[in-house]
Design the sequence.
């Protein structure tokens, strides 16, 4: 079980990585850093929100999760 704070931190760090990527790609394609900054500024907000929703949805899905056995040592 992950806490919501962990999901938020993961979303933020992933978006930093993704936004740098988006900025560099937009700059490469347009040749204009101002346009690249505008694009990456907008997408950082929308994609962080979407990632958080995606992450929280997956915490509710049991697919691929294994419950520890009663004899297993869990910290």
Sequence:
């Amino acid at each position: 079980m992950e806490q919501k704070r962990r999901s938020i931190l993961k979303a933020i760090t992933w978006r930093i990585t993704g936004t740098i990527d988006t900025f560099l790609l937009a700059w490469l394609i347009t040749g204009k850093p101002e346009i690249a900054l505008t694009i990456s500024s907008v997408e950082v907000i929308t994609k962080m929100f979407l990632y958080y929703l995606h992450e929280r949805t997956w915490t509710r899905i049991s697919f691929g999760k294994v419950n520890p056995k009663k004899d297993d040592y869990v910290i």
